[in-house]
Amino acid sequence: MFCKVMSGALQGIECYLVTVEVDISTGLPCMELVGFLSSEVREAKERVRVAMHNCNAPVPAGRVTVNLSPANVRKAGSSFDLPIAAGILGAMKRVEEIWLRQTLFAGELGLDGSVRGVKGILPMVLEAKRRGFKACIIPKENVREGKLVRGISIFGVSHLEEMIKLIAQREVPVPEEEDEKGRDKPEEKLDFSEVVGQETAKRAALAAAAGFHHFLMLGPPGVGKTMIAKRISGILPCLSEEDCLEVSKIYSISGLLKEGKLMDEPPYVAPHHSVTLQALTGGGRVPVPGALSLAHKGVLFLDEMAEFKRNALDSMRQPLEEKKIEIMRNAGAFSYPADFMLVGAMNLCPCGYFPDLGKCRCSLLERKRYMGRVSGPLLDRMDICITVEPPEIGAIIRDGRKTGQTGSKEMAERVKTARRIQKERYEGTEILYNSHLTGEMIKKHCKLDRPTEKMLGEIFRQRDLSPRAYYRTLKLSRTVADLEGSGRIEKEHVIEALSYTSGLDIFSKGAMDKI
To answer: Are 344 and 302 in contact (CB under 8 A)?
Structure first.
């Protein structure tokens, strides 16, 4: 007796189909699983055998061979329990043929027959729809995630007996629609109107959001760096349909996708400075996305940036350029998208109060060592780097009394307008933001008049900056011009862009000696 059912496995953020072949023949009673399997997949035979026995559908006495194809790709996870059980039921002729041809199965079994949730349901259902399947049978707790995909029937089961009754039907029924009531209310976002006395930093944050530029804030503790960073994701536009599905798949395979809700807003990820290299970039015995991928199309905030391990910070240099993470393991190569906006905040010395020499307790050597924790190549990739000064208490009191301060709503509208200008300008190309412009496109879209070009060249010679910094300034100037609704980059736009890179001068050789 032979049967074949379909399931899915994950590789990166994509799903590939796995054929579960079951053969029941005469011989000594045993169950063998083959097909390049991890330990948790090999253990499925005991879970399936006991679960079927406890559901009055015992595995027949004989030799049961289960093959998971393709056999040259390693399979991991516990989602193959349900398809193996369905394959055995099919070999026992307890399944209607229509279910075997048109359905994808995924789920973990408990010994009592209960069906438990698994990770990665969204990419599995998307692949099932793409391959022409009519239905998916998945765990009940994953059903709202599965129903995010339209055009395919989703059946959620909480027990093996439910699946047995379902697939014994001669026709595939139309699944009942879930009641939309009781869903979580959207969370209230933090508002920029709560940040007082830091108008220059807010303007820099606006430019960073408009052009998707990397943003670093320097300054003593308590001046509002973290407040500003936490509010940047709130002024970014909602994700496009394509980006929404891509980000949602990342969160689905990580087990972090909120029940029944796509990631339609840019994510905000803020790992602790003790984060390991593997947790930041992704990987593991069974590779999963790291913080860089979880921040895809959103904000990755590194608070106390100089406290992060040097190797963890330098691991971001390649993803900042290539917008993806490549992980090589014995089990294969895995690629995760990592197109994020890096926002950092750091002090200028271990005690945090430099350059206020009245408060700073650090020696010159300690300050230099502390600043040296962030490498030059990483700093060179920061489009905006500003110093955030503590405002005077009088200014805070005056700002606190005002009620008409610029808030996130107004800033979000300006970002939306600037993004629309960029979309129209780069239509027909893969470029989405000014920060993604390449060399030839910079020459085409970031032209300067001769006096402005001469001024910019002179400033760069004086500051001894890199060619990358030159092009970075042009891209940032293009964003400032877009915020002002200008088709041309004017001299004042370049001057403003240069002011947003003044913080990098602190890292230059001998800068601290002069203070």
So the answer is: yes
In degrees to the nearest 10, what's the CA dihedral of 40, 44, 46, 48? 150
Pairing of strands 135-139, 153-157: parallel
Contact 204, 389 (CB under 8 A): no
DSSP E strand stretches across 298-370:
299-303, 324-329, 332-337, 341-346
Residue 457 in tokens: 């060249």
Rounded Cα distance between 208 and 231, Å, is: 12
Please report where in the chains the tokens 């990987």 appear, as a residue.
Answer: 283
Report CA-CA distances (Å) from 445 to 36, 320, 450, 466, 477: 52, 22, 15, 21, 11
H helical segments located in 112-232: 121-130, 143-146, 160-167, 199-211, 225-232
Structure tokens at 221: 């503790």
pTM, rounded to two decimals? 0.88
Contact 119/138 with Cβ under 8 angstroms? no
Measured distance CA(457)–CA(463) in Å, rounded = 10
Helices 467-483/408-425 angle, 10° precision:
110
Distance in angstroms (rounded) separating the CA atoms of residues 408 and 298 = 16
Instruction: For residue range 462-481, list pLDDT tens digits in order.
Output: 877 778 888 999 999 999 99
Q: Are 379 and 505 in contact (CB under 8 A)?
A: no
Question: Side chain identity at 164, as an amino acid letter?
Answer: I
* HEC secondary structure over 413-457: HHHHHHHHHHHHHCCCCCCCCHHHCCHHHHHHHCCCCHHHHHHHH
CA 421 to chain centre: 25
Amino acid (one-letter) located at 236? L
Distance CA 350, CA 337 (A): 34
Token pair 């197109």 is at which residue? Answer: 339
Do the beta carbons of residue 206 and residue 483 sit within 8 Å? yes
Strand partners, 6: 19, 104
d(CA 185, CA 22): 46
Cα gap 330→284, rounded to integer Å = 11
Write out the DSSP string of 382-417.
-SEEEE-PPPPHHHHHHHHH-S----HHHHHHHHHH
Reference 139, options 117, 167, 121; nearest CA is 117
Instruction: Please tell me the distance from the alpha carbon of residue 289 to that of residue 34, in angstroms, as a whole number.
Output: 27
Residue 411's CB is within 10 A of a number of other CB atoms, namely 23
- Residue of 6, 136, 23, 7 whose CA lies nearest to 78: 7
Retrieve residue 10's tokens. Answer: 């994950």
CA distance linking residue 405 with residue 141, whole number of Å? 44
Q: What is the Cα 173 distance to its own chain's centre? A: 36
Place 398 in a pLDDT band, splitting at 50, 70 and 90.
low
Residue type, 400: G
Burial label for 487, CB within 10 Å (0-12, 13-18, 19+), is exposed
For 282-326, the pLDDT digits (tens) are: 877 777 899 999 999 999 999 999 999 999 999 999 999 999 998
